[in-house]
Amino acid sequence: MSKFAIVSDTSCDLIKEQRDRFGIAEYARGYVHLPDGSAIKGNLDWSKEESDEFFKTLSNKKASFKTAAPAIGEVIDILEPFLKNGEDVLCVTLSGGLSGMYGVFVNAKRDLEEKYPERKVIVVDSMRYSTAEGMVCVLASQYRAMGKSIEETAALLEENKGRIHQIGWMDDLFYCKKMGRVSNAAAVMGTLVGIKAMADFNHKGMSHVLGKTRGYQSAYRHIVEYMKATGENLQEQIIFITHSMREEHALKVKELIEKEIAPKEIIITTVGQGSAPNIGPGLVAAFYSGKEISEDCVEEIKIFEEVSSKIK
Known about the structure:
The chain is globular, with a radius of gyration of 19 Å. By secondary structure, it is of the alpha/beta class. The chain folds into two domains: about 5-160, Rossmann fold, CATH 3.40.50.10170; about 165-310, Hypothetical Protein Tm841, Chain: A,domain 3 (2-Layer Sandwich), CATH 3.30.1180.10. It has helices spanning about 15-20, 50-60, 70-85, 100-115, 130-145, 150-160, 175-180, 185-190, 215-230, 245-260, 275-280, 300-310; strands spanning about 5-10, 25-30, 30-35, 40, 65-70, 90-95, 120-125, 165-170, 195-200, 205-215, 240-245, 265-270, 285-290.
């Protein structure tokens, strides 16, 4: 196996068991600013009790939460031990269009490569957030296990990150709108009672509403049929399902995907502390690799409409 470390950040939503399994050596912790004015470092390994309490507080839309990237020095402190140990480092970050995290890593890379000219630090903007960013990390791990060099791995990530899809819903798009991750019109639609606004990523890495459905049973079918229409080699993939306080629905989606698609593996994850203020409670989404996502999801919207026309 090629010798280089993979490092990510708080938004990848991979818990320790998953980071250990896929060899994600470390992650940079962004900050979460709480309603009382204090700030904490985001934790990917918070307990269920901590998660439930956090989302309960977050449910009060008048409560002000913000997220922020770490300082350059903090990222340097994470990366430098690997360089000292003779390892190159591949960094996979939260989308640069949504956060300053990518820029902080790039600045840390510049400073460290001046100090360690014999070593390489490569920073890849995942163009994704939450578990989709985690999937880019998993892809990096798989390429490394295939014997790809750090340069080859980075190039493959750049080539394939635009193929990582999500399909699912948020019960309320208020949080995505507030943090600039979805359009205002879509956010309004996402607040209508019983309406599920279904979204994929667009070419810029933001959630793009494809259409809507009513009720959970219809939403489940849309997820499975949309995956069949846009996925590639789904039976060979590790598919992730992520939720925020919606475990019952995530398990139902898992059951349907196992029955009708039968992928290599399905991993259920929960939204981490760094992503939570930007997503809020009520997310259920599947993440997988498929066809290259088109500009402004023009093709994906057509596919979703075709799927919807067949679902009663």
